[in-house]
Structures are given as structure tokens and as C-alpha cells.
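hey can u check if this looks right to u? its 412 residues, i copy pasted from the old doc so theres a chance i mangled smth
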Amino acid sequence: MSVTSASARTFRSLQRHRNYRLFFGGQAVSISGTWVQNIAQAWLIVELTHSPTGSPLALGALAAFQFLPYTVFGLLGGPLVDRFDKRITIIATQTTLMLTAAALALLSLTGQATVWEVFLLAAVGGAVQVVDMPARQAFVFEMVGRKELPNAVSLNASLFNLARAAGPAVAGVLIATLGVTVCFAVNAASFLAVIGSLLLMRTAELYRGERDEEQQGVLHSLGEGVVWVVHTRAAWLTCGLMLVVSTFGINFSVLLPVMATVTLRSGPVVFGILTACFGFGALVGALFTAAVGRPSWPILLWGGAAFSALLVVLAPLHWVIACGAMLVVTGVAFTTYTSMSNATVQLAAPDRLRGRAMAFYGYIFTGVPAPLGGLLAGWLSSVGGTQLAFLVGGGVSLAAVSTAAGVRRGGI
């Protein structure tokens, strides 16, 4: 296969769909701004606690506050997304997130920010994600249709991880030179790009699926989605494995700041570099899955196994270059696994249940694991450093992948 044909296959959703090109461009700016804020927010917690060695539990608490609303209400977002216009819904959620970023910038600028105020704004942002996350994921189908969906899902992952690579690097420099306030202001401005892209779309070109009946109760609608997941083998096996891996293995928002400050005894620049290394690897993994096309169970399982094993390898490292290099490889495995999981659930879902299916997947991916896993990772780091946290996370995740592989072979 020529390089030209491989490239065309990798980016075909962008080539064929104007609405998706607009969305992709707007998200490129907005998600980069979000990552700049994520890094600055974590670093602000380190500064407000006045002690890098005393911050692991505070960072774990930040993760808990950020994702606790999703843990409590996450499944309710699916029924709402399935009955309202997804494009309008995303405009509303992105506008709200822009206002929370602006509030954080104002607090930081005036020197009035406290740990609890940062926690509160993180919780507000988490509450918005209850609707925003499933709406954005389900909206991908409306922009590209079923045939191009797996490719677009992988391209979305590549976009997210390109931002993961660029955003932290920019944040590290901005924090070191101008402070965290500028990072929050940059994120607030970045939301204008995605809101503008949604307003410029041609709605007649969207692939409108069957919408949920509006008179159906939210709880009844939610129950219908849960029943579908429980009775669909591809969905429950994918989500069950993701629940374990996310809870124990995907806690980088807590562990990388601690690795930079405590394990490697460095500052915000190294923190940004480590996060960017992981993001670069994740970008490579996303482009690989975009070229593959349809989801594949062998690739999904191998990606999960490689990610888990690499966490174990990462645990004893104490050299910046070695940690950065290992995070690049870990990022490749991470996105290979998560992109395949996302596309598997999306393609298995009927059109009218796609919002609920993605809400359930998002709930399993972040709603339950993020607060519990964040607190667990913070506690493990305070007891035995990032070495213990990575070792436990990788070991438990590897056991889960092995179990899932056995269940699949057994035809259960």
C-alpha cells in the first residue's frame, strides 16, 4: 500500500465531511486550551498546598471533585442527549465551560483563589460533562454516518492526544514564565473556536438518526439503555474491562504531577514534558487505529495488555529521559486500547440508543473510575510513591485484560 493511499484512508472522514472538518478544527483549539487549564489547575493545587510532597492527596481530591458529579449523575446524560438536538446541546455546554474557565482566571488574577474554590469550579465543570461528553461522542455519528464512524472516532482520539501533547508543553512554559492565570484565560478564549464551528455547520448535511420519544420518562429511558448494555456481549465485556483499567491504571492526572515534583524532584516544565510525551505517544496510537478502520478485538486486547504491562515497567524509573521515553510507548498502547473500545460500543449501539450507550461508556471510563481511582492513586503515592501506584495499577489492569481475553475465548 502506498503512503498516499494509507494517508487518504487515515483522514477520510475529514476529506468527505465539511461539518466534521469544522468540528475537528474547533475542537483542536478548544481541547488544547482544556489541557493547558488541566495542567495549570493541578499546578495551582500544588502551589496552594505550599508543599509538593504534601500535594498527592490534594491532587487526588481534585480528581474526585472534578469527576464526582459524573459519578453521581453521569448515566442521566444519555437519555437527555437522545431526546434533544445534539449540536445545540454542545453549544450550551461549551458556553458554560467557557464561563467556568473565566471565573477561575479571575480568581487567580485577583489572588483570591483557594483550594476549595478550585475544587468547586472543578465540580461545576464535571457536572457539565454529564451532558457534554455523551453529546459530543454521539454527535460524531451525525456528522459522518455509520460507514465513517470508526475512522472519525480514531481521529477524535488523535485530536485529543495531539492536544495532550501540545497543551501541557505550552502550559509548562506559560506557568514557568507568566503564571497559571494566563493558562486559565487561554482556555476560556479557546471555547470560542468550537462554538463558532458548531454555528457554521450545515444542519441539512447531518445524519439525523431516530430520536428518543420525548414523552418517555428519563428513568425509563435510562433503564432501556442499561438493559441494552447488559444484554449486548460486545458492550458489557468492553465496558467491564474499561471499568477496571480506568480505575486502577488511567490516573495520570494525579500521578504525573507527583512524578515530576516528588519522584524526579523537578518543576512545571518537566511536568509539562512528561505529559506531552504521553500525549505524543497517544497521538501515534490514535493515527494507527484511524488507519486500521473497523474495531478489532485482538487489537483492543493487545493494546490493553501492552498498556498495563508498560505501567509496571514505568514504576521503578527515576530518570527524566527514561520516564519520558516510556510514557511515549505507554501513550501508543493507551489510545490503541481506548479508541478500539469506544468504536466497539458505538457501532454496536442502535441509532436511537447511541447517546445512552456513550453515556454508559463515558460513565465507565471516567464517572466511576476517576474519583475512586484518583483517590486511590493519591493514597498509594503518599504511601509508596508513584512506584507503588504504577505497579498496583499495571498489575491489576493486566489481570483484568487476561480475564477478558479468557472470557472472549470461552464464548461467554
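The CA atoms of residues 133 and 362 lie 7 Å apart.
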